[in-house]
């Protein structure tokens, strides 16, 4: 296991305000490092006399840039998990341009400066690595792809599901509800042939909530709200005909990996992160170019035997060992 390290984590959304997959990953990563005997503190609330061996920042948004500009105490190697939610085309070109524009500071230049400052950059996918190196100019020698790892969670029987979940095959949409994630587009395109179950908290104001609730009512979808029971989430994933994930941009979806680990097929948008999933798990991942592609794909999946065996997804123990080894190399 090696010597004990003290690691400071920085980033994510405060629990009081919400959060999502990144915050879940940070919490589970912290627990896994502590299980190996390391000490993990949250930089936002650690005492000033704590002496971390490594500072690990999650996210490359302006708040991270601002905090690191004021880093004057307890200097140590900096590790960055950048979370670059960008898709090819116009978004990628805009990021490249904005990261190099002189004059007023842009959020893209903040990302570029953060990546240049980091001693080690840990993208989750090969495409995110290309964004870090080719678009934002990170030193390729300091960039190492490290995917998310999962803790296996055994599902419960179907009778443990809420009564509003249909008895037959259903498509599952999992995660916080926002325009980028595409849940509203999937519901609007549904033809009712395979019912939809949505689990996730809604981001937006009262008007957005009212519009979402009208859409749920009109389409007959079952909306379970935000779920924190890991066994219940695993049970929903296990019994679904497929997970539907039509995000416009994504780094690496925990919901997709969790569903694959349960043996559940995934219908995903045709973006680089999902193409990598399709290439890794070709029997279980189908790509949809538009929301209208989802109903026929769901019908096909629901009518066929589930592909076997279930994919072998990296475990949290495996990725945490790699992470700890990367920390030690910096020291």
Short précis:
This protein is an alpha/beta fold and 331 residues long. It is 38% helix and 13% strand.
Describe the protein.
This protein is an alpha/beta fold and 331 residues long. Helix content is 38%, strand content 13%. The chain has helices at residues 21-35, 62-69, 90-98, 107-117, 126-135, 183-189, 206-219, 230-239, 254-261, 272-280, 294-303, 316-330, and strands at 6-11, 39-42, 54-58, 78-81, 120-121, 171-174, 196-199, 222-223, 242-245, 266-269, 285-288. It has a six-stranded parallel β-sheet with strand order 8-7-6-9-10-11, sandwiched between helices. It has a five-stranded parallel β-sheet with strand order 2-1-3-4-5, sandwiched between helices. Strand 10, helix 10 and strand 11 form a beta-alpha-beta unit. Helix 1 (21-35) packs across helix 12 and helix 2 crosses helix 4. The chain is globular, with a radius of gyration of 21 Å. The protein starts with 5 loop residues before the first strand and ends with a helix.
């Amino acid at each position: 296991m090696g010597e004990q390290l003290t690691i400071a984590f920085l980033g994510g959304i405060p629990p009081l305000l919400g959060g999502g997959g990144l915050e879940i990953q940070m919490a589970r990563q912290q627990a896994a490092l502590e299980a190996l005997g390391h000490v993990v503190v949250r930089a936002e609330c650690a005492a000033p006399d704590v002496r971390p061996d490594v500072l690990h920042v999650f996210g490359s948004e302006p708040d991270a840039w601002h905090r690191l500009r004021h880093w004057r105490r307890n200097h140590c190697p900096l590790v960055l998990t950048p979370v670059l939610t960008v898709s090819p085309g116009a978004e990628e070109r805009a990021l490249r341009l904005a990261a190099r524009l002189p004059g007023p500071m842009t959020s893209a230049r903040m990302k570029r400066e953060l990546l240049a400052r980091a001693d080690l950059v840990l993208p989750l996918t090969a495409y995110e690595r290309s964004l870090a190196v080719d678009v934002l100019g990170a030193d390729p020698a300091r960039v190492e792809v490290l995917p998310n790892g999962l803790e296996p969670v055994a599902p419960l029987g179907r009778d443990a599901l809420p009564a509003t979940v249909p008895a037959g095959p259903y498509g599952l949409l999992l995660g916080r509800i926002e325009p980028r994630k595409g849940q509203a587009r999937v519901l609007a395109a549904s033809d009712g042939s395979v019912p939809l179950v949505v689990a996730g908290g809604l981001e937006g104001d009262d008007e957005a909530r009212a519009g979402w609730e009208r859409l749920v009512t009109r389409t007959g979808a079952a909306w379970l709200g935000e779920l924190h029971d890991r066994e219940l989430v695993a049970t929903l994933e296990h019994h679904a005909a497929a997970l539907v994930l039509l995000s416009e941009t994504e780094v690496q979806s925990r919901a997709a990996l969790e569903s694959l680990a349960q043996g559940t097929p995934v219908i995903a948008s045709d973006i680089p992160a999902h193409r990598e999933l399709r290439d890794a798990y070709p029997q279980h991942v189908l790509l949809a170019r538009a929301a209208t592609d989802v109903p026929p794909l769901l019908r096909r999946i629901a009518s066929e035997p589930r592909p076997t065996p279930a994919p072998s997804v990296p475990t949290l123990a495996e990725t945490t060992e790699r992470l700890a080894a990367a920390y030690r190399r910096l020291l």
